[in-house]
Amino acid sequence: MPELEHSYAIEQTSRLLGISAQKLRRWDEQGILGALRTEGGHRRYPKEVVDRLVLANGGGFAEKTSRELASVKRTLAEKRRIIQLLIESEGRYRDLVETSHDLIWQTDAEGRFTYLNAAAHEIFGLTPPDLLGRCFFSFETNGSHVPNRRFLSMLRRNGEVQNHVTHLTTARGEDRWIGINARVTRDENGGMLGIRGTARDVTDQHLAIRRAEHVAMHDALTDLPNRYELQRQVENALQNNQVGAILLVDMDHFKRINAAFGHGAGEQLVLGLSGVLRSVARSRNGELFRIGEDQFVLHVAEALREDAQTTAAVMLDAIHNYRLEMARNRVVSNITASIGIAMYPFHGNDWPALLAAVDAATHQAKDEGRNRVVLFNPASDSLRANHRRTHWSRLITEAIEQDEIALYVQSAMNIRTGAPIHHEIFLRIRDEHGAWADQQQFMGTAESLGFAPALDQRVIARVLTHIHEQGKNSPLRYAVNVSAPSIADPNWVRELADIIRTSDVPGNRLIFEISERAAMENIDATAAFIEQMRALGARAALDDFGTGFSSFYYLKRFDVDYLKISGAFTQDLSDNEESRVFVKAVNDLARNLKRQVIAKGVETELMVKLLKEAGALYAQGHYFQPAAPLGTAIPAPGRKSSRG
Fold first, then answer.
1. Which of these, 248, 226, 256, lies nearest to 335 by C-alpha position?
2. Is the pLDDT score of 57 beyond 60?
3. CA 148/CA 165 separation, integer angstroms
4. What is the tens place of the pLDDT at every residue in 122-172?
5. CATH level 3 topology of 388-629
6. Cα(160)–Cα(195) distance, rounded to whole angstroms?
7. pTM for the full predicted model
8. What is the fold, at CATH topology level, of the domain defined by 100-201?
9. In the chain, where the domains are located
């Protein structure tokens, strides 16, 4: 039969191709290699097709086919493995996302939520399904409207925003401060698809910072805003070309009251008078500040001269009529005060000038018999200022020319181990009676008259000489205070660098202390000075930290090693919870920024205990060691050191 001549039986085909007959039958059913059927139903395979397959594969058809099938199997197995890994990875990702305490979210191009994880319930008070289609700003408080719109504008412009804090009200009516990180997602053409990001409840941190800011900007005893808040308000008014008045109220004979009735009575008197003066401030559209132990300032915006003088008279009358009833039927009465008035911008177009003017007016009121009001008079102030400046100018000049400069030293201590970590240097010169005057008495005049850079350089040269004479046996560092005029003078800074380089004293033996006030007066110059000194190996400290809260915002600019907390906070620890909160906040902040905190003015064992509880490691003060002349034996740290 012709079909038999042109075809192979299944057994022949199996032998030629090296494939089992069973597989050939399966291929026939699957259409891979079709067979013809005889009348008896037997499979016959076209000779031409089979011969071509044999020739094409060199007789190794079965082997090649097996290799190809094995390769396919391996590929499929690898794909199954990859798919399984992806499934497991997605599962892990979903577990992490859904169990995260941080909110993970995604929105469409309009900012409406398309996905939120389970943390949404804690932040918004609603479950994720209830939040779909809504947005962050559906929950914003009134005060957050403008910052939030600015946030969206910045996000669209930059494509990413980090650490935006917004104030929300949850569905339960709770206040929340939320920190948001966000990034725009785009299509291949750059079009905005949506936003995705994370968010975290930062309410506790936000409230802690606000509380620390309140402590720094308010008087601990009366809760009145302090000198730094007054300065901020007056400077804002001057920048906006406004007019107004500041009235400095200085209690007469306050120290006599403390001496006669005790410091407790003095504090009660200050509290009582703060209430009286607050009432006057409200009635005269002013704001009251406490700037010293027995000093208040009333700031009256948009006030004219007659308004200020009338207000001062009302305040004098209110103070005179106040009676403080003490225990045992004792009464403090007939209290008086001296009030100085300065008008801005007429008596000063910047804060230092205005403060000097009102201070001069108050001194004049004291000199004229107290219990009176004096409006600043530039002529009389000029005479008074010249007298004081001439007095200290002569003493400072003599000290420099005759080298009558004394250096005292006091150690900063590790309160856990009792070991000193460095010595701080204090400058003193002779006063008119021949006694050593503390630098706080004359450095202000020295700075204003241009003597400060010469004094600073003289002190540093003396310290370098002392370190050189001590040799390399003592590795302790010496901390030297540097004034604002010195830091601001690039020539002075260059000369200082040259002195250090040629002194043979390693730069790492020096610490330069810059007061917070000096640092904030010239932020750029301070940052540059610290950078140049660090290049020589010296360290830096920000002194009296906390007296001006604005420095918190610039702390990253100042690459300092130490933050020295003002003694005003340290000495108030036992009686004032907010001071303890502030000290703890500074220690927590410093730890995060890798700074070391030194608490100044430590005088009692209780202060040390409270500092330890606040997380402090270092402290300085008379409790550990009195100040002693440089070059003499430094007193060993003690528990009951006398004040020096």
1. 256
2. yes
3. 9
4. 888 899 899 898 888 788 877 666 677 778 888 888 889 888 888 888 888
5. TIM Barrel (3.20.20)
6. 9
7. 0.47
8. Beta-Lactamase (3.30.450)
9. 2-59, 100-201, 216-376, 388-629
